[in-house]
Specification:
Blueprint (H helix, E strand, L loop, with lengths): L1 H7 L31 E3 L2 E4 L4 H7 L2 E7 L4 H19 L4 E7 L4 H6 L4 E2 L1 E6 L7 E2 L6 H12 L4 E2 L3 H8 L4 E6 L6 H12 L4 E5 L2 H6 L6 E6 L5 E5 L8 H11 L4 E3 L5 H6 L4 E7 L4 H4 L2 H8 L6 E7 L20 E6 L4 E3 L8 H12 L22 E3 L1 H8 L5 E7 L4 H17 L5 E7 L15 E5 L8 E3 L5 H9 L34 E2 L1
Helix pairs in contact: 3-5, 7-9, 12-13
Length: 529
């Protein structure tokens, strides 16, 4: 269930990655142990520090280094997978090795490499410590191994003749082949670069005239071959424009997907990784033959919006059941349609569901044109919501409380599953008790999983906003330490902290961080300083 919740949060528009803006990169006083340049390992991972870092770079052609903090939850979750990947690479006799640096103790290394979040992974190649490459793969053992293997070997297979090309293209469900008259050209080098990054796809290159002829090509072209939908998509190269890595990457992300995706454990990675700005969702019970037939119109509408809107079928009686609460739905609501704008989690729905391809096209285009207003979720307020020390806000009561011109309102936006929210819950309750008799100050909280606001988008948890009394609908984001005394200083000083050095906390519970969850545990899941 937790894994499904993590996946579903991608449809909540959350910026991937947990954040802990902790502000601490401090060595423990008294840690004066003299370290040598000897290289030692823990679970196959090199333990690196200021004294042996240079040696590790000189002895290993490819070295992926994790900069971590011992208290960081994301780092702790990554540790077993990182160790498993290290062992797998060693067993393969790969030139690639994995290492780790405690960035809270090795402050000079953290500063040198600009470490601002945990975990941060950087790849060092051929001993070069001035231009490490940022890790862009998945944060699991298989993903790390695949990414490192791609960095260690050729990123694309050379297809020397038509028979080799045919066998290569038939070997996978999806393959990409770059047809270049000159494999040393600038465009070909960009292709190799993209192939090195997109480790979840298989890449080949062809230069021979017979291979060009076999596939009906006469000019430089990138072809995506797939065993579904149209079977082949060509991207001819414009000699004047050249080849742009980011543009090619996005084209491949979009066109490697089926025109209509089913939301499953196997496809969720691709759905969220495609970074398509809108998702059109058809919720249905796939055990009902009548509802299954609705996919025809849905599919017929999808082609018009390829690259702009991803069409996804969600089985309310299967893998998709646990995401229903995030859309305010139950299985009984199926079949129904929702369009989600990924940037800000805005959800749109028809006044009345119509499943024809014409109706779906019309609705989607209207949303893209800004002609449809989003439907905002709101829970019902508890009966005693305004009598508690901490007022419980919901979507429908937020405006009247937060923008009351006679009150200074301090609101915690939280998610029930967020560990950082749970860690600061007692402090927030204590703050409510402290100010419960103040007429001019209100301490409140809002469950951002169950409630949506028209003009405020929450990107991480917990988020704290202060709404000062008076006209103008002002809002101030609180970004300092999360403890009662600092909160009180902020409130007593009119929504700002006095000019004084902030206390450095040694535990994440009192940090200023927000926990943001990434779909699929990508490299963007981390705790920020």
């Amino acid at each position: 269930l937790v894994w499904v919740l993590v996946l579903s949060l991608a449809w909540l528009g959350l910026v991937v990655g947990g954040e802990e803006e902790d502000g601490e990169v401090v060595a423990e006083e008294g840690d004066d142990e003299v370290l040598s340049d000897k290289l030692e390992e823990e679970d196959g991972v090199l333990v690196l520090h200021e004294h042996n870092f240079a040696r590790a770079l000189s002895e290993h052609q490819l070295l992926l280094v994790e900069f971590y903090a011992p208290w960081c939850g994301h780092c702790q979750r990554l540790a077993p997978a990182f160790a498993q990947a290290a062992t797998a690479l060693k067993d393969e006799s790969s030139p690639a090795r994995l290492g780790k640096v405690d960035a809270t103790a090795q402050t000079a290394l953290a500063s040198e490499f600009g470490i601002t979040s945990y975990p941060t992974l950087k790849l060092f190649r051929d001993g070069n410590r001035t231009h490490p490459l940022a890790y862009t793969g998945r944060m699991d053992a298989k993903g790390i191994v695949r990414w490192m293997e791609r960095q260690a070997g050729p990123s694309a297979t050379l297809l020397q003749d038509a028979d080799t090309a045919a066998a290569f293209i038939g070997s996978q469900d999806v393959v990409v082949v770059g047809f270049f008259k000159d494999l040393e050209s600038e465009a070909a080098q960009v292709f190799y670069e993209v192939a090195g990054e997109m480790v979840d796809m298989t890449f080949g290159v062809a230069e021979a005239a017979e291979v060009f002829e076999a596939y009906g090509l006469s000019a430089n072209t990138i072809c995506l071959f797939k065993k579904f939908d149209e079977g082949r998509t060509d991207f001819p190269l414009d000699p004047a424009r050249g080849l742009d890595a980011a543009e090619l990457t996005q084209l491949l992300r979009v066109h490697k997907l089926e025109l209509v995706m089913e939301f499953t454990n196997e496809t969720s990675d691709h759905i969220f990784g495609a970074k398509i700005p809108h998702h059109m969702l058809l919720f249905l019970n796939m055990s009902s033959s009548g509802q299954l037939a609705l996919r025809d119109g849905f599919r017929a509408a999808a082609g018009t919006f390829r690259g702009k809107v991803l069409f996804v079928v969600v089985d309310v009686a299967g893998y998709g059941a646990d995401v229903l609460p995030f859309f305010g739905l139950t299985p009984a609501d199926a079949p129904t349609l929702r369009l989600v704008k990924m940037e800000n989690n805005r959800k749109y729905q028809m006044d009345q569901d119509v499943f024809s391809d014409t109706a779906i096209r019309t609705f989607v285009q209207a949303v893209l044109d800004g002609k449809v207003k989003p439907r905002l979720l709101s829970a019902e307020p508890p009966e005693d919501w305004d009598t508690r020390p901490v007022k419980v806000l919901v979507g429908k009561t937020f405006e009247q409380v937060a923008y009351d011109e006679t009150k200074n309102v301090f609101v915690k936006f939280y998610a029930p599953w967020c560990s950082h929210c749970q860690a600061m819950a007692a402090a927030w309750e204590e703050l409510g008790e402290r100010y419960k008799d103040r007429e001019d100050i209100v301490i409140a909280e809002l469950d951002a999983m169950a409630n949506e606001l028209e003009n405020i988008t929450i990107h991480g948890f917990p988020t704290l906003h202060y709404f000062p009394a008076g006209p103008g609908r002002k809002m101030v984001e609180y970004k300092s330490n999360r403890d009662v005394e600092t909160f009180s200083k902020f409130l007593e000083n009119g929504g700002m902290l006095p000019e004084e050095p902030p206390a450095v906390s040694k535990t994440p519970e009192n940090s200023t961080g927000r926990e943001e969850t990434s779909p699929l545990g990508t490299a963007e899941s981390r705790d920020e300083l």
